[in-house]
Specification:
The complex is a heterodimer. By secondary structure, chain A is an alpha+beta fold. Chain A is 23% helix and 39% strand. Chain A has 2 domains: 224 residues, PmbA/TldD fold (2-Layer Sandwich), CATH 3.30.2290.10; 232 residues, no CATH class. Chain A is built from 9 helices and 25 strands. In chain A, helix 1 packs across helix 2. Chain B is α+β, with helices and mostly antiparallel strands. Chain B has 2 domains: 219 residues, PmbA/TldD fold (2-Layer Sandwich); 213 residues, no CATH class. In chain B, strands 8, 9, 14, 15, 16, 17, 18, 19, 22 and 23 form a 10-stranded mixed beta sheet that branches. Chain B has a 7-stranded antiparallel beta sheet with strand order 4-3-2-1-5-6-7. In chain B, strand 5 and strand 6 form a beta hairpin. Classes of the chains: A alpha+beta, B alpha+beta. At the A-B interface, strand 2, strand 3, strand 4, helix 2 and helix 3 of A face strand 1, strand 2, strand 3, helix 2 and strand 4 of B. Strand 4 of chain A pairs parallel with strand 2 of chain B.
Chain lengths: 472, 439
């Protein structure tokens, strides 16, 4: 399997930016540049049509960061390189200086660190998606779609795949980092309708992977078709609190929403994180360990260095139910006097860096899924996450899942509910976790927003988890 | 890569039946504040360009068309562009869809008035906008702004295609994402929200912020949502828009073509079982522009000129909006892909909708309306429970429902207001919902 190539465009401009950085370093206390050239392809098959394009993640541009007198400013751009390093440095330097001049009352941070670092990473995938034959990918996606549409109650279906080759460099006077790797995701989605009853479900595959993801999706199509047919008979959950067994993707989003967003260090700086009052205290049951990190696992939230030039790490967020700490971008780390964890991420070169999650997950335990189901007196098995939302200050949580299966006296009754809205108070939900399975599965087919914007690729998951939540 | 060079490169290729270029030049200013203190200054200047190529195959009855899109970065050179177009043309040749035309040149039927922001650079507006946003804080008692992000962007859009379309327009887009907080008996509480605007309407910004500060004060005083059954749900603003967007979204020709939409032209939006007098009939128009809405535009993304279009009248589906390609497939006149819509007023004053016992949810964690299933719901951050005599702030718990169960009972307020992409009823009422208590 060949190493993922670096962007030739970026490789050719590195020297130009290195020189521009040297010039700008004479004008500012700190200066750095992130260069991005993320390429990608996307394919989709809807009813009666197929098409090819590029995912929204494709970007090519630069963001220069400078610090003077403690104040930090940035300028993002994607052209004007042909005029050479002196002009580039002069024009960008003027824009940065104008920003500093326009905001005299701006917050002053301690000096941004610039310890020496030089590293390179080139990822490896089995079948690079950017080199896959478009005809073959489209043919297979159309076949997945058609397999669903053959079923009488499935009125709409789609199949899609996208592959992104991330290529980024980070340069400062003392740092020289370059990384290139590929991630991919594939989806199959169906709508079943009978009379006025309409239900949806999906299958997804993702990872630091290429066209091999299509094989994984293909194997899931019959299960999706069966599930859609079942969902047409779905009812509602009677509102109330229940024992719930969460699939790894639902449990992972519980981790993500409950104590992922809640320990983003910029939330501590803004005094928006209730978690600040609970550092070193119990926030979950004693069998709960939770991690976030770009390092340590290989999924769509993995990388060598973040968008501020800090190397990715692995953070133990909760250990045996005790809150250990959070993860940071460069500025919140400075403000809190902590070492950066390499979680400073941007939606794209023209977006601000925030403290963001990467791969967030519960550590596996020792139970089996079967033991967990058998232990439930009256509750629900929750699967197929639709969405989740955090509330870092007040610790509410919302999860929407598409498939709930009733459990009574340890057995699945065959009754199904869709959708299921799950809510609760985070410490109560995590405190009620009494079983964790030995499984470990990460899902990286979604994206994470900060509030209602700033999307980045993340993954989440881990084992099956049993707890209690309010359902409706 | 200049636009003229790109146009020339596309026009010189014999393998392309058609092509389209969409270019956006953006200049933006951003302010990030913690409390009322600037935290970080940023500026953006960028040019984004997207090219779509169309490849035809066969003829007569079997004539097919495939398309592929790709970003053309301004820093691309000639050789890189040629390779990109080769890849796109090859990918397009592997899609064989029923043939469809792309839009030809046509005059705009809607001309958005120039934004009041025009004439000054985005960064020159920051101080005035921030002053307006923070003005209400002084009157808000214990409520305050925790943090705020302000984005103001001027965009020059241009769409060209091989059939002679050359449409250009300018738009301004302002976004504020804000978090407000207040002290309650159980500690501090917060609300996070956003607002979007296209005009320097300082009074509106001040009023919007004042409303959010008042809401967070109410959340600080809110009681846990009790078990409630049989109460109707009242929604306003973006949540009312999300409910009404289910109808607008399902009046899209693309969803009709893919059979994902349950709505059929000539049939009632309210379902066959709806009984006269029990609901307000929906009048829905696709709109090219709404005053104050950043998405106002004279053309859609393909360069098709947009006009106001009656999609539903008297509660009956009359026309589909959407990309011209799907109108062609359905044998309907093309209407263009509108981002904005309006909904006509209902029969009942908003105050009357709110006066009966019910639950009005002002803020959800994340209100979700599924376009396919019609299921809706969300966790409640702030709601007002009218118990028949008092309007009590409540928090926690959740509410769920189905549009199929509510569309024949939907009530709309007589007053209308601008939401994010809709001008429509200021409040709506959905009688059949399920409420899960906070405890």
């Amino acid at each position: 399997m060949p190493d993922c190539p670096h962007s030739a465009f970026l490789a050719e401009r590195k020297a130009l930016f290195a020189q521009a950085i040297r010039i700008l370093a004479r004008r500012f206390d700190y200066v750095s540049v992130l260069g991005t050239d993320d390429a990608g392809v996307s394919y989709r098959a809807l009813r009666g049509e197929t098409s090819a394009g590029e995912p929204a993640w494709v970007q090519r541009g630069f963001v220069l960061r400078a610090q003077a007198g403690g104040r930090v400013v940035e300028t993002a751009f994607n052209e004007g390189l042909e005029r050479g390093p002196e002009r580039l440095a002069a024009e960008a330097g003027d824009r940065l200086a104008a920003l500093l001049a326009a905001s005299p009352g701006q917050k002053e941070y301690p000096p941004l660190p610039d310890e020496p670092a030089s590293a390179e990473f080139r990822g490896v995938v089995e079948r690079p998606g950017l080199e896959a034959d478009p005809e073959e990918v489209l043919r297979r996606l159309a076949a997945f779609r058609d397999a669903l549409l053959e079923r009488p109650d499935i009125v709409a279906a789609s199949a899609s795949a996208e592959f992104v080759r991330v290529s980024r460099f980070f340069l400062s006077p003392r740092r020289d980092l370059f990384q290139s790797f590929e991630w991919g995701q594939a989806y199959c989605f169906g709508v079943a309708r009978r009379g006025e009853a309409a239900k949806t479900s999906y299958r997804a595959a993702s990872g630091l992977a290429g066209a091999e993801l299509l094989d994984r999706i293909e194997a899931d199509i019959p299960g999706l078709a069966e599930e859609l047919a079942e969902l047409l008979g779905a009812g509602k959950v009677e509102p109330g609190e229940y024992e719930v067994v969460m699939s790894p993707d639902v449990a992972g989003v519980l981790a993500h929403e409950a104590f992922g967003h809640g320990v983003e260090a910029d939330m501590f700086v803004k005094r928006r994180a209730k978690a600040a009052e609970y550092l070193g205290k119990r926030v979950a049951s004693g069998i709960v360990d939770m991690y976030d990190g770009a390092a340590g696992v290989a999924q769509t939230g993995s990388f060598l260095f973040d968008d501020e030039g800090n190397l990715g790490t692995k953070t133990l967020v909760i250990s045996k139910g005790i809150l250990q700490g959070g993860f940071s971008d460069a500025l919140s780390a400075l403000e809190l006097g902590a070492a950066p964890t390499g979680n400073g991420r941007r939606q794209a070169y023209d977006h601000k860096a925030y403290a963001r999650m990467t791969n967030t997950y519960f550590a596996p335990g020792s139970a089996t899924k079967e033991e967990m189901l058998a232990s439930v007196k009256r509750g629900w098995l929750l699967d197929r996450l639709n969405s989740g939302m955090e509330d870092p200050k007040n610790w509410g949580i919302q999860l929407i899942v598409l498939v709930g299966r009733e459990i009574v006296e340890g057995k699945l009754t065959g009754r199904i509910a869709s959708p299921v809205f799950c809510s609760g108070y985070v410490p109560e939900v995590l405190g009620a976790i009494d079983m964790v399975s030995g499984d470990f599965e990460l899902t990286g087919s979604g994206a994470c927003g900060k509030g209602h914007k700033e999307y980045v690729k993340v993954s989440s998951g881990g084992p099956y988890v049993k707890t209690r939540m309010r359902l409706g | 890569m200049k636009l003229a060079e790109l146009k020339e490169a596309l026009a010189s290729r014999a393998d392309l039946a058609d092509w389209r270029i969409s270019e956006t030049r953006r200049k933006g200013a951003e302010c990030y504040l913690i409390g009322d203190r600037p935290d970080l200054g940023r500026s953006i200047e960028a040019r984004d360009c997207q090219v779509t190529v169309y490849v035809d195959q066969g003829g007569g009855e079997t004539r097919s068309r495939g398309s592929a899109s790709a970003a053309v970065h301004p820093t691309m050179g000639g050789r890189e562009l040629a390779a990109l177009l080769d890849r796109a043309a090859f990918a397009a040749s592997k899609s064989r869809n029923p043939w469809y035309p792309i839009p030809g040149p046509a005059p705009a039927s809607f001309a958005p008035p120039a934004s009041g922001f025009e004439g000054r650079a985005p960064e020159a507006w920051s101080a005035e906008l921030l002053a307006a946003l923070y003005r209400a804080e002084g009157r808000a008692g214990a409520a305050r702004v925790n943090s705020l992000e302000l984005f103001l962007t001027r965009s020059e859009r241009r769409v060209l295609n091989s059939r002679g379309v050359d449409a250009a327009w300018t738009s301004w887009s302002g976004t504020v994402e804000l978090t407000v907080e207040a002290e309650g008996s159980a500690g501090e509480v917060e609300l996070t929200d956003w607002l979007r605007f296209s005009e320097p309407d300082l009074a509106r910004l001040e009023a919007e912020m004042a409303g959010r500060l008042e809401a967070v004060r109410d959340r600080a005083a809110a009681a846990p949502l009790p078990a409630l059954a049989g109460l109707p749900l009242v929604l306003a603003k973006s949540e009312a828009e999300a409910i009404l967007r289910w109808f607008f979204g399902n009046l899209d020709a693309a969803r009709a073509y893919s059979k994902a939409s349950p709505l059929v032209l000539g049939q009632s939006l309210h379902g066959a079982e709806a009984r006269e007098g029990e609901y307000d009939r929906l009048d829905i128009r696709a709109e090219p522009g709404l005053p104050g809405a950043p998405a106002s535009a004279p053309y859609d993304a393909e360069g098709f000129p947009l006009a106001s279009l009656g999609c539903a009248e008297g509660g009956v589906a009359r026309a589909f909006h959407g990309a011209p390609r799907y109108a062609h497939y359905l044998g309907l006149p093309p209407a263009g892909a509108h981002a904005l819509f309006s909904v006509g007023p209902g029969s009942i004053p908003a105050a009357e909708l709110r006066s009966a016992p019910g639950l009005e949810v002002a803020y959800f964690s994340d209100f979700d309306v599924d376009l396919d299933s019609g299921d809706f719901g969300g966790e409640i951050r702030l709601a007002y429970w009218n118990d028949g005599s008092r309007r009590i702030p409540v928090t926690g718990g959740s509410v769920t429902g189905s549009l199929f169960e509510n569309r024949g009972l939907l009530r709309l307020s007589r007053e209308t207001a601008l939401a994010e992409t809709m001008r429509g009823p200021e409040a709506i009422l959905l009688p059949r919902v399920s409420v899960t208590a906070a405890k």
